[in-house]
Amino acid sequence: MKKIVILTLILSSIFLFQAFYNIKNINPTYAATTSTANWNEEASLKRVNTIGATILKANNLPEGITFKVSDDESINAYANINKEVYVYRGLLEYVTNDEELAAVIAHEIGHIVNSHSAKQTIINSIISSISPSTTNAVLSTSVEAAKQLSSMKVSREDEFEADLTAIDLLQKTEYNPLALISVLNKICGNYVDLVSTHPSGEKRLMNIYDYADYNYPDMVKKGYNTDSYLKARELIWANLKIRKENPRKLAKAQKEQEKLKQKKLKRAKKMLNSNDPWNTSLNIIQQLSGQ
Predict the structure, then answer these.
(1) 119: which residues sit within 8 A by CB, 6+ positions away?
(2) Distances in Å between the alpha carbon of 136 and those of 8, 143, 187?
(3) If we measure between CA atoms, which residue out of 232, 256, 255, 252 comes closest to residue 244?
(4) How far is CA 171 from CA 5, 41, 150, 180, in A?
(5) 3-class secondary structure, 96
(6) 35-64, pLDDT tens digit by residue?
């Protein structure tokens, strides 16, 4: 039992460090040129809502997502179980153009489409329900450690899935899906993802490029003309060269893309057949919580 407590304390320390490191690891080359003194909440809210509505309409998705902005200088955005997408001021002033902003918003919509917030809440509810009802600090700490460990695995998978969903959503709009690679190359660093809820930057870039190239090759051939995308492409092409020289790696990558394509078709069918896919995950949570 002592080992569990020690492990939990170590993990907690690593989580705190990792969060700080991720923020500091943003590439300073792409620092925002817009002064925070020029912040206009009304204009920013209109911009975010216009892009969000465009993505929903182009994909025949139902209304119900609320797009909001936050006067926070962090370079961040997130979606919650209440179907709210928040975009921070820091991110609005960091993106190069509306296409990069659309990529971020599409990613957050991807979390809602795939019920990611609900999934993690359900997992934590199950872990809590099967744990002993006790005030014992050791057992309580063990439960929290289990939640954190499950959150790491689920969150990494969710980030990948939200990225791929974003590509699917964007390719039906006027926005170039490759903008997602451009903005992610600026924001996420290539940190070791052993203890992070987000996969490393290089893994995410490769995952997005492979998926886009497999499903929308003509789009990828057209490319995307931003400095960040072109630099990301150099890294991607270097990895592709190594893969092509290894038949086993090449076969594995092709097999993985076929699996992802089947998941894509399943995801599209689910959205098409549901009158209101947003409510499904929320209803599950309400039932669990007795609301």
Answers:
(1) 154, 158, 281
(2) 15, 11, 41
(3) 252
(4) 47, 29, 32, 11
(5) coil
(6) 445 789 999 999 999 999 999 999 888 878
